[in-house]
Amino acid sequence: MDERQEELAALNALHMLEGDEQRALDGACVSDKELRALNNELEQVALELARLITPVEPPADMKKRIRAKIRSRGGPGAFGVSRGVILGTAGWALAAGLAVASVWLWNERSKLIEQHASAVRAIAAAIPASSPAEEKKEARSLEDELKSIRADYEKKQAALNAEIESLRKRETEAQTRITQLTAETEALKKQDAEAQLQIAKLQSKVWEYRRSEMSIVWDGRRGQGVIMLEKMPLAEPGTDYQLWVVDPGKPDPVSAGVITVDDKGSAKTVFKTVVPVGESSAKFALSVENKGGVPKNKGPIVFIGP
Amino acid sequence: MSQPELNDEELLQRAGRRDMRAFEQLYDKLAPRLHGLLRQMLHDEREAEDVLQDSFVHLWDRAPAFDPARSKAFTWVVMIVRHKAIDRMRMLGRRNRLVESAALEHSALGGDSPDSADADLETSERAAAVREALRELPKDQRQLIEFAFLKGLTHHVIAESLNLPLGTVKTHIRRGLLRLRDLLKGGD
Q: Coil, helix or strand for B98?
């Protein structure tokens, strides 16, 4: 510890420091135990000087004023916390705030009742020991004190009631808003679900299938779809049409099953891949394969796309 | 039933346990001296009363935190009151200037003899020890420490008000307080 630090500690003991010097000392005290001890020691010494102050009696009613002020404040800490909670934006926070405020209000009421009861007891206890004039004076003084506490309490209660009312209004508004947002969310979810569907209408580039049409509706998330075929030539004996889903993430097309075409060359059926495929955009292919289908595409592809 | 005679530390600890009667007893013992201090610092009766009231309300709130192992009740209370007074001075813009009515001759700590307000022996003995130690200091150091204690001003303002070099103010305060500490510890 150097002389400069001693000097700062001495000036601090008399509360003469401000700004940078105060911060410098506080900072040095954190790491220097000896300086911290000196700082405390000198402050205690300086405060002892107050013993030499010439006493001056405060006003007679000062003690009563202090007592009334202490009693009238009730539980400001609790209110401070509840207000912080109440001012949140969500509906549940508002409701919680209301509940805390109500509890605080109820406590205030209980305290007032208790204070009133104590005052009544104090008046009752004072009666036998005092003269009638003193009793009257004391009673009046206590009554005044009670009136003052009650006035303070009523003021706080009115302010709280107004705040609760305003919070209720905000809660209603918040709930309305939540309902609107929920509806909007549902609508968006629906739109999103629809957006997952892939619809494709394909034309074949193979001469024999030039008039044929293949339509696919594919739900990638569920891994299933619907295929519709029109104006298809009948499959040759010993062969079947087989549908494939071409997943960019897989090396080979994944089989979605054999598609049976009726006498009119039409087919409409739900299909599902034999193994799961990715949700990203898929391609579809229709090939002619051996009867009953094959695990891996071998035959000619008549449709592919989109 | 009257409360048994308790010292300041016991009263403050009881106040910390929400004993209003102990708190009022503490008020009776300390308020006059604190009021005297506030009048000297603030030079305004209304402000002094207001700060005294605020200080005691604050004291009631802070009483549970009082630790007798760390400080005496008296110095702890004086510290709270002085901080409140300095805050008020800042608010009134008086921290950085000397109020015209505050002259050096009014800034001596009072009483050449023990005060009758010190009802208990311990308090009165401690006051006598402080008085005696203060007397031992060189006049320049003593006057400066008394002035600083009673005015609640920064060292810059004190140097300016008393027309003294800043270095002299700092040195006198440092030497004076260190000496005072040694004297109160019983050293020479």
A: coil
Residue A234 reports pLDDT greater than 60? yes
A7 in contact with B, Cβ within 8 Å: yes
Choosing among B66, B154, B158, which should be mutated to test the A contact, i.e. which has the most A CBs within 10 A?
B154
3-class SS of residue B69: coil
| Mean of pLDDT over chain B | 85
Distance in Å, alpha carbon of B4 to nearest chain A alpha carbon: 20
Structure tokens at A222: 């569920």
Which of A82-91, A149-158, A161-170, A173-182 shows the lowest mean pLDDT across its residues?
A: A82-91
Preceding peptide of A306 cis, ω within 30°: yes
Q: What is the pLDDT of residue A84?
A: 36
| Rounded percentage of chain B residues whose pLDDT exceeds 70 | 83
Looking up tokens 């912080």 gives A84
Q: What is the pTM of this model?
A: 0.52
CA pair distance A207, A97, nearest whole angstrom:
75
Q: Is the ipTM of this complex over 0.90?
A: no
Q: Say whether residue A53 is in contact with chain B using an 8 A CB cutoff.
A: yes
Q: What is the fold of A198-305?
A: Immunoglobulin-like (2.60.40)
Domain annotation for chain B: domains and CATH numbers? 1-95 (1.10.1740.10), 98-188 (1.10.10.10)
Give the angle A138-A141-A147 at the CA atoms, nearest 5°: 140
